[in-house]
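Lecture notes, structural biology module. Today: joint structure prediction for complexes of two components.
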Amino acid sequence: MIKIAVDAMGGDAAPHSEVLGVIQAVQEYPVGVILVGDEGRLQDELRRHKVADLPIEIVHASEVISMGEAVSTAVRKKKDSSIRVAAKLVRDGKADGVVSAGNTGACMAVTKLVIGALSTVDRPALAAVMPTAKNRPVVLIDVGANVDCKPTHLAQFAIMGEIFSRSVLENSRPKVGLLSIGEEESKGNELTKEVFQILKAAPLNFVGNVEGRDVFRGDVDVVVCDGFIGNVALKLSEGLTEMFSTLLKKDLSTHLSSQIGALLSRKAFKNFKTRVDYSEYGGAPLLGVRGIVIICHGRSPAKAIKNAIRVAHECCASRVNQRIEDEIKALSFMQRNASANVMIN
Amino acid sequence: MGQIAFVFPGQGSQAVGMGKALHDSSEAVRAVFDEADAVLGFQLSQLCFQGPDDQLRLTENTQPAILAVSTAACRALSEAGVRPDFVVGHSLGEYSALVAANSLSLSDALRMVRKRGMYMQESVPVGQGAMAAILGLTADQVEALCREAAQGEVLSPANLNTPSQIVIAGASAAVDRALQLAKSRGARKAVQLSVSAPFHCALMQPAKERLEKDLRQITFGNLDYPLINNADASELRSGDAIAGSLSRQVCSPVRWTESVQKLITQGVKLVVELGPGKVLCGLIRQIDRTVKTANVEDPPSLAQTLETIKSLS
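The predicted structure, tokenised, for the full assembly:
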């Protein structure tokens, strides 16, 4: 049985949401969970539910890395933090993946440090799964694991994102786009222009450059960019959404007529909410590490935790990492051959 | 009128496992590797067959390794009774070509290329020199690009590989500037190559001087088959001309395009690449589509080449 280590202490509502999500997950999916965190608190939390026959274990961790903490010192000093202990379980082969709703920077740093990257991957990358106008999710990769990237790194991100889309989101032949500032091949900066050439020659369904506005349109399944741009794009869209919902709520509550209108449209609003609800996809996979790592939002409710466990399980079951290893190896072989067509001495 | 040319690759085609199948297939080929192991005092054959890759990539190892595999392929083809009308080698391959033409003994060649590799490596501290491939510009345009980007530093064409693939070499900063400029000057592509030193440019002067001394110690016999040399793309037959040609080669560009064109005007119909890989075949087809190409790197490619030769006559 596939086993997922869940960092039970990282999130804003920890360990309550985590434990609830875990219980739902093990009831719905064929997966076992190791809860990592303060044993006493986790026992208390579990005692409120009927869990006697469920495949849930507890591994104690005495420390927690909090949201506001500086990543570099927390990673070095807190040797017994819940995320670190969870990562060690994967490193030692006792779990297949980690789910955490803790400090994103710390999750990435700790898992990269403790578990390490796959042998053919230069840089693991964080992928965000987001809703689109066409009701099919889009994968944006990288959204913050690597601020400065080389062309080969982006090519590897493209491959990892494509495999995730194919294996977990069940797109048989995902369309891969490169985030740039114009559709033509000649548009973009030095980095994107070089990446364009690599992706054009790679065995992917590469559809060329896409602009920022195309990301949510739903015409492409994977959008590739460096972690700096990806993080800006992600935060910008989060901010825009928040602004809209604030303004909408304000306007809807000013007049009696709009209050009644809002009441009548309740169902539509609810529908809309599930469509754009990030917790549907659980969290962001950190792709390219030697285990499965899903990093959830700090505010994650139980449902997001449950879905993150489902995604981690699907990644393991469809052997995402094996595919990443193989396909990146094939890509670098291809690139080596291209440069080997030059004779120098 | 010459019909068949043997061509010999330089550095870039090496791969772990090269020569193994040839070695296992014939006594005459095994003798090549035995001689190489004895002359060099270490198991070059094992390095070719089993690696490790990082050791095989060291210039001082790569050079004798490719020479040995090329000579092995040449022996195998000779055993089948095929003789060339011309020989040409790309850079290091010129030594293999001279061995094939019986101007230079295999032992001398092995010792020389090992030193050549070391001298070249030691000429320029790691990181100070670089090379880049410029695609889609003519030789004249690349020369102009080099003049523009040099800014007082060394930068010049190093390998005129095809009419549109030219490798440049020089000081790292100058190569960087050329890479920046290349696109705006019309290049289709400009890529830095991962090399350990800037070969075939003026920065190789120290290597040239050291190599000259060693070359003087060697006797070169007259060539059984004429060689088109790298430094001038001219036809050489006399052993006396070889030492000078090989030392000039170190600091001057490899005139590969011209050399191949010369073969074709001399009536060559088939070019056989001897040694690991098929890089030269690819370059030659880009220079002239009418000439046939074949290669020998293992028993199946040998069999196929013999078929091609049969169909010629």
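Point to remember: The first strand of chain B starts at residue 4 and ends at 8.
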